[in-house]
Amino acid sequence: MIFKRMFWVCFRKKNIQVLLILVILLVTVYNIYLLGNSQIFDKSQKHLIMCHFQDKHEESLPELISSEVTENSIYFFETSCNHEKGIQLNLRQGCAIESAAFLNPDSKIFVLFLSPNFVDHKSHVIDTLSSYKNVNFRYINLRSYANNTPLQNFITSKTIFTSNWPVSHTSDLLRFLTLWKFGGTYLDLDVVLMKSFNSMSNFVAVESETAIASLVLNFSTDKLGKLIANLTVNDYANNYRGNDWGYNGPGVITRALQKICNTENISEMTKDKCQGFTVYDQDTFCPVSWKDWYSYFNSNTSAEVMKKINNSIGIHVWNNHSKNTVVKVGSTQPYGLIAQKYCPNVFSLAKIEF
User: Fold this and answer.
1) Is this structure's pTM higher than 0.90?
2) What are the tens digits of pLDDT across the range 81-135?
3) Looking at the DSSP assignment, which residues form a beta bridge with residue 54?
4) How many CB atoms lie under 10 A from the CB of residue 231?
5) Domain ranges of the chain
6) What is the DSSP letter of 263?
7) How confident is the model at residue 50 (pLDDT cuts 50, 70, 90)?
8) What whole-number distance in Å separates Cα of residue 288 and Cα of residue 132?
9) Is the CB of residue 113 less than 8 Å from the CB of residue 138?
10) What is the CATH architecture of 49-263?
């Protein structure tokens, strides 16, 4: 009996020692993994935008100069650093750009990159868009671009490095800064136009009951446009939140218009109440909400969706949600039907999937 008890005590002690060794091993492995993959846990995610602070070189795109910009220019931004092998655009980005160039032939289209790399001449999308005389690919240096603007200190302090979504937040910054500098129209790279802007000026569109969209913005160079532009860039600089995805985009323009229109209620933002600034309803650019984004890819409800968007100026396909959803060439998926009509040259590059 005594030997049995001694054996049991030894057995338990041995098990405890094994458990302790296993715990130590697990803690060690976890720490090694944590240190080795610190970028995953680095909320700033600054490695995603390091190219924004690099200088251009001989093979870089031409740098944007103020003298080539006109008041009715249309701007797109590609703020990722995924261009080590040359500046590229995917088919859907190309579609957005072509639709703007196709429907607004008298407007200069500027596709602006922060990556100081060269053009990938093997990119069929770039070559196709280059056939439009009003499409211009340009590089901008973030630091010099912000010089002598309300956002200069924000850029030089590299506060953008604190963002959880630095690529998106840089895009937010650039749209407001560019319209502050030049006026004109900003569009997201997942907005397909279906109608010309013609003589439209000083306008935005509703995204939801509680927010104005920042996916399309037009600020004129008149007194009203400059007032809105000033409000937005100063709001961005003074109220920036790196841990809130929408606060620095839709949030900025929503707060600016709440001041201009003297109301917090978006449904009350009429042209009269907003000093002449136009706030288009949700159907104008966001006829399908982000919650229903799959409608653009659903052949079964194609007729219903196409009828719904019939009077829209453009559509937003909610790339953050839809980017991995396939459009089959030849299908009746609404996005494919729209692309085939409004960006025909880029869409023709898609052989099987768009």
Assistant:
1) no
2) 888 778 889 999 999 999 999 999 999 999 999 988 877 767 899 999 999 999 9
3) none
4) 20
5) 2-41, 49-263
6) -
7) confident
8) 29
9) yes
10) Alpha-Beta Complex (3.90)
